[in-house]
Design goal:
284 residues, alpha+beta, 7 helices
């Protein structure tokens, strides 16, 4: 076992209703990214040829550099909209079968290809991805969003994210990454729930809109309570102290998983650095 090896510095939070957003800096050396990510990365996503499968899609990096794909990224369209279950670093020009979960239970027909719009599943969905019954848990959570995001004929997470666009603008107005910021810590209704760290500010900026929309989904309908800075810093310190264990390769990277039962931590290590970390509270 080993520690994460990053010092996290949590700044002052900004509260809008039930949502509090904290900037996070790290002590990792600054370096230019050697990979692409989010919608700036040319990645083809398609159903399996001849026999589509709910839990599998084929992803192909068309760039000349590696591409970082994040757990919870929505792959929209195809026979049904899915979300990636793990963060991975794709090598160029190498079709890869990616594990996914369905986030649109009421449809099994359509085209062969999927769109990538940089959207993410909320923390309450990410929290169940590592379970044996992950698919059932995801379906239950997406159905539960009907209370705050309205109905969807196919129980589609993408459709429900569409319906909260105005709420996202209201709750995240004026929020944007600060100079040197590499991560964000999200508090909902007075409690820290989600920490996301990148190795560069550029990567954080690329994923910022999807992160803010996902955070809004979890905040809607919750009490308008500000998350205290002391709790946010305590959450980050817990992540720092959590022993990390090797969990196998993930594309070109190596995946590390935290052993703390109260916080689910997953990190991707590549080129002698942690390029991405997600930490989700066990109760969101």
């Amino acid at each position: 076992m080993a520690k994460l090896g990053l010092r996290l510095h949590v700044g002052q939070g900004t509260a809008h209703g039930p949502l509090t957003v904290f900037p996070v800096w790290t002590d990792a050396p600054t370096a230019a990214p050697r990979y692409l990510t989010s919608t700036g990365a040319p990645v083809d996503v398609a159903e399996r040829s001849g026999s589509p499968a709910v839990d599998q899609l084929v992803v192909t990096n068309r760039a000349d550099r590696p591409v970082l794909l994040l757990a919870g990224e929505l792959l929209e369209g195809g026979w049904q909209t899915r979300a990636l279950t793990t963060t991975t670093l794709l090598a160029p020009d190498r079709p890869t079968v990616a594990r996914v979960v369905c986030v649109e239970q009421g449809r099994w027909h359509g085209g062969q290809t999927h769109a990538r719009r940089g959207r993410r599943a909320p923390a309450t969905v990410l929290r169940v991805l590592g379970r044996e019954d992950a698919q059932q848990g995801v379906w239950e959570q997406v159905r539960g969003y009907e209370q705050v995001a309205g109905p969807s004929a196919t129980d589609s997470l993408a459709e429900r994210l569409n319906s909260i666009q105005l709420a996202t603008q209201r709750l995240t107005q004026g929020l944007r990454p600060l100079a040197g910021q590499r991560g964000v810590l999200v508090g909902v209704a007075g409690r820290p729930t989600w920490l996301e760290i990148f190795d560069t500010r550029r990567s954080l900026v690329a994923h910022w809109p999807g992160l803010m929309q996902a955070a809004t989904m979890d905040a809607l309908g919750r009490p308008a309570v500000r998350t205290p800075g002391a709790l946010a810093r305590s959450f980050a310190e817990r992540v720092e102290r959590t022993p990390m264990v090797l969990s196998g390769s993930s594309g070109l990277g190596v995946r590390l998983r935290g052993s703390d039962p109260r916080v689910r931590s997953d990190a991707l290590h590549w080129d002698d650095r942690t390029i991405h970390l997600t930490a989700i509270a066990s109760e969101v």
